[in-house]
């Protein structure tokens, strides 16, 4: 989606319904009734005098009530959380206070329509609530339930208030904006992640990159896994239990992992099917769905490794939703920063080619094992790996669609669906 198209969608989401006012009580209608009254007096037409006087009186009351109705009416919102995954619920503690002597017969509270959030038990895109009789200096509080429906970063703090006279001949609407932002992370999927071999050494450059262990500090024992070193074999425990068991040693440094994401294969070509609008729409929808699915896989893998105590970093050549380049997140900086990047990223390339990843390699940021995600393994990816395979640590490529180059890297590359599991229980994140 282009930046202009995204801005149009955001503006459409922020639209609030127009106010409704009877034409008989518009701002300048009172002058019409005044002319009618003068004409009735001139011609001594008593019924018209009575009707005109009544309508002028009602117009004055309704106009004054309308203009004063929303003065010193103060809404407040407080989100119980500002970060959540798609499909998770959140709550807004809402309140409104009528801080003046004039009571309100009715007051409507509106959230503008947003595709990113659904409201209430019926999961509606538009939220509206009507309060009756908000008395002088009275405050009303209630809870609004919402659910994250679409990944991204959204301003949730725009509130529209409506009020007017008791008969609703006239009404006034004002919009209050609050600075609160809602970070909606990709949907978590049920995934199974492989464990790293305990023989690799973390934070050591080259092929031996991994983690160091203290051979004098044994954390425990576990069943043998392919790739375990025989020097870690626990002969006594194996003889006693009849199972092949190996020692688990205390790591000297924290385990770290870097995730790299090349978005170039997910960029939408707006001219791919110029002559067929239907094909173009299907093509754009498929690209967007693939992009969101891959982000869900990345988020799910990261959450799973984080629960295992592995610090996860992230870097991508994608753009921030505001148009600038995303910053790399080192593994030890914090998991929230990692997830924030997944909420902010869009399928636009900030830096073409593999130069960004070359720079990270030369700066020593790829000294730990890393996973490379892409739509398709290309010749550029293949040549980059061949050029640097003696300089990088343990690396795995995961792709969405097959190619000739994925076959050439078949020993270190797999399709992304290898992470998927039939377990219905989705990995849950924690902050």
TrEMBL record:
InterPro entries: DUF58. Pfam families: DUF58. The keyword Membrane applies. Residues 221-366 form the DUF58 domain. The chain crosses the membrane at residues 30-63. The keyword Membrane applies. It comes from the Bacteria. Keywords: Membrane, Transmembrane, Transmembrane helix. This is DUF58 domain-containing protein.
């Amino acid at each position: 989606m282009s930046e202009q198209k995204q801005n149009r969608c955001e503006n459409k989401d922020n639209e609030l319904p127009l106010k409704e006012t009877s034409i008989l009580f518009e701002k300048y209608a009172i002058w019409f009734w005044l002319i009618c009254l003068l004409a009735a007096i001139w011609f001594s037409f008593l019924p018209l005098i009575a009707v005109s006087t009544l309508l002028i009186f009602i117009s004055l009351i309704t106009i004054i009530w309308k203009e004063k109705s929303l003065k010193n009416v103060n809404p407040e919102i407080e989100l119980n959380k500002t970060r959540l995954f798609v499909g998770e619920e959140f709550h807004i503690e809402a309140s409104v206070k009528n801080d003046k002597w004039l009571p309100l017969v009715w007051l409507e509270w509106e959230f503008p329509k947003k595709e990113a959030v659904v409201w209430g038990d019926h999961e509606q895109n538009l939220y509206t609530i009507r309060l009756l009789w908000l008395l002088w200096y009275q405050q009303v509080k209630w809870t609004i339930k919402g659910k994250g429906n679409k990944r991204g970063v959204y301003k949730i703090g725009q509130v529209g208030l409506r009020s007017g006279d008791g008969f609703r001949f006239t009404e006034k609407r004002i919009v209050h904006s609050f600075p609160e932002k809602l970070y909606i992370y990709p949907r978590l999927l049920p995934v199974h992640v492989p464990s790293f071999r305990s023989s690799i050494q973390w934070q050591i450059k080259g092929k031996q990159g991994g983690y160091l262990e203290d051979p004098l500090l044994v954390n425990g024992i576990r069943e043998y896994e392919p790739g375990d070193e025989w020097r870690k074999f626990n002969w006594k425990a194996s003889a006693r239990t009849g199972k092949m068991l190996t020692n688990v040693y205390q790591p000297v440094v924290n385990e770290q992992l870097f995730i790299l994401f090349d978005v170039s294969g997910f960029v939408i070509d707006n001219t791919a099917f110029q002559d067929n609008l239907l094909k173009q729409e299907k093509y754009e929808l498929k690209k967007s769905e693939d992009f969101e699915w891959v982000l869900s896989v990345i988020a799910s893998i990261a959450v799973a490794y984080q629960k295992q105590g592995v610090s996860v970093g992230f870097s991508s050549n994608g753009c921030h939703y505001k148009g600038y380049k995303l910053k790399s997140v080192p593994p030890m900086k914090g998991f929230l920063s990692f997830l924030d990047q997944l909420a902010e990223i869009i399928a636009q390339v900030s830096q073409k080619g593999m130069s960004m990843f070359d720079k990270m390699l030369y700066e020593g940021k790829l000294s730990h094992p890393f996973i490379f995600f892409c739509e398709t393994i290309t010749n550029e990816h293949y040549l980059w790996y061949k050029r640097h395979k003696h300089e990088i640590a343990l690396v795995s490529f995961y792709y969405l669609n097959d190619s000739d180059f994925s076959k050439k890297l078949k020993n270190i590359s797999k399709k992304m669906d290898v992470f998927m599991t039939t377990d219905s229980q989705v990995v849950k994140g924690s902050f």
